[in-house]
UniProtKB/TrEMBL annotation:
Active-site residues per Swiss-Prot or TrEMBL entry: K83 (proton donor/acceptor)
SMART domains, per database record: ELFV_dehydrog
InterPro entries, per the entry: Aminoacid_DH-like_N_sf, Glu/Leu/Phe/Val/Trp_DH, Glu/Leu/Phe/Val/Trp_DH_C, Glu/Leu/Phe/Val/Trp_DH_dimer, Glu/Leu/Phe/Val_DH_AS, Glu/Phe/Leu/Val/Trp_DH_bac/arc, NAD(P)-bd_dom_sf
PANTHER family: LEUCINE DEHYDROGENASE, VALINE DEHYDROGENASE
Family (UniProt): Belongs to the Glu/Leu/Phe/Val dehydrogenases family.
CDD domains hit by this protein: NAD_bind_Leu_Phe_Val_DH (cd01075)
Pfam families in UniProt: ELFV_dehydrog, ELFV_dehydrog_N
UniProt-recorded name of the protein: Valine dehydrogenase (NAD+)
Organism annotation: Micromonospora pallida
Keyword hit for ATP-binding: no
Signal sequence, renumbered to the chain: none
Gene Ontology BP terms: amino acid metabolic process
Keywords (A to Z) from UniProt: NAD, Nucleotide-binding, Oxidoreductase
Length: 360
């Protein structure tokens, strides 16, 4: 993906700003990418990862920042899309000085970009970064932050799943349905709780023995299966990928027995075209970036001064957004993933345009 594009279409117009940051002393090499500020300051996490090359780091941050613009738009936030990557092995080079150097670069953008946690960065890191910049979310509760974002991520996934269930079976209740949860990590555990409370039967898997043990202790009624393959071929109504990306691919989709897919994992579609394969198999896919937006909704709330109830109310609206997307998909004869993109682009264009009305 390139930085510049010539089209005026907000869906393909390229990035507004890409900033390379270096501090040789601490070994910091970071790229901050702002895809769009049409709806407000760009918000997206910082990924700290040992990329093989600078080109790989750049491709990732361009891709991720664009994704955040779409996610934030559909989450109803007055926030644009951005993301940052720090190129390096966090186990080896992460230090207070490096994080604070990074924080100074974030501050230098004067609020055009707000950062948050992502792969390789944690709440404690955001607290350190916040010593150098005001433009950071995902801090600890003790520092005025929203804490663990998986709480509302799971709540939002559950709401999106209810909307998808209603679309397929005529009722949002999951009582009596069998849901397959792949990944009993932070989000998968909270989600399992919501499903059990709703009266669903849960079949689950996780590669980590501790996560399996957590399920045995906390919800003995959860049926554990050997791996993700056993899960997708089990007699399940809903498949909830809550582990890594690429869960929906050329091997898994043909084997899937569920009628609905709704889960927390990012980038569930392994490649473009998988959404069509799902539609051909009559599997309703609730787009990942729509249903997993509860986390960004939770941390974004920090910008106003964190209020859990307000953030939860916003995450509950993922139910309405998912419904709208599924209805639009039917009306326009496109897969839900495409309908979601269209709705996000519409909001960026319609609401973003209002900034052309001068408010002196
Ligand atoms: N935490 C959030 O707020 C949030 C927000 C949006 C999206 N997500 C996405 O949701 C997913 C889960 O996030 P999390 O915070 O719960 O992460 P996590 O690391 O706490 O949990 C992931 C779990 O998946 C398990 N796992 C890994 N590979 C597996 C496999 N092949 N089969 C079965 N289980 C496997 C891990 O052992 C772990 O228990 C990730 O893709 C993440 O990017 C999370």
């Amino acid at each position: 993906m390139g930085v510049f594009a010539s089209s005026d279409d907000p869906g393909s117009s390229g990035h507004e700003q890409v900033v390379f940051c270096q501090d040789k002393q601490t070994g910091l090499r970071a790229i901050i990418a702002i895809y769009s500020t049409a709806l407000g300051p760009a918000l997206g996490g910082t990924r700290f990862y040992p990329y093989a090359s600078e080109a790989e780091a750049l491709a990732d941050v361009l891709d991720l920042s664009r994704g955040m613009a779409y996610k934030n738009a559909l989450a109803g936030l007055d926030l644009g899309g951005g993301k940052a990557v720090i190129w390096g092995d966090p186990e080896r080079i992460k230090s207070e000085a490096l994080l604070r150097a990074y924080g100074r670069f974030v501050e230098s953008l004067h609020g055009r970009y707000y950062t948050a946690c992502d792969v390789g960065t944690y709440v404690a890191d955001m607290d350190v970064i916040s010593r150098e910049t005001r433009f950071v979310t995902g801090r600890s509760v003790a520092h005025g932050g929203a804490g663990d974002s998986s709480v509302l991520t799971a709540w939002g996934v559950y709401q999106g799943m209810r909307a998808a269930a209603e679309h397929v079976w005529g009722t949002p209740s999951l009582a009596g349905r069998t849901v397959g949860v792949a990944g009993l990590g932070k989000v998968g555990r909270h989600l399992t709780g919501h499903l059990i409370d709703d009266g669903a039967r849960v079949v689950a898997t996780d590669v980590n023995p501790q996560a399996r043990e957590w399920a045995r202790q906390t919800y003995p009624q959860v049926e554990l299966v050997a791996d993700a393959t056993a899960l997708i071929t089990a007699d399940i109504d809903v498949y909830a990928p809550c582990a890594l990306g690429g869960a929906l691919n050329d091997d898994t989709v043909p084997a899937l027995r569920a009628k609905v897919v709704a889960g927390a994992a990012n980038n569930q579609l392994a490649h473009p075209g998988i959404e069509k394969l799902l539609a051909e198999r009559d599997v309703l896919y609730a787009p990942d970036y729509v249903v997993n937006a509860g986390g960004v909704i939770q941390v974004a709330d920090e910008i106003e001064g964190f209020n859990f109830e307000r953030a939860k109310l916003r995450a509950t609206r993922i139910y309405d957004t998912t419904r709208e997307i599924l209805q639009l998909a039917d009306a326009e004869g496109v897969p839900p993933a495409e309908a979601a993109d269209r709705l996000a682009e519409r909001r960026m264009a319609d609401v973003g345009r209002l900034r052309t009305i001068l408010l002196p």
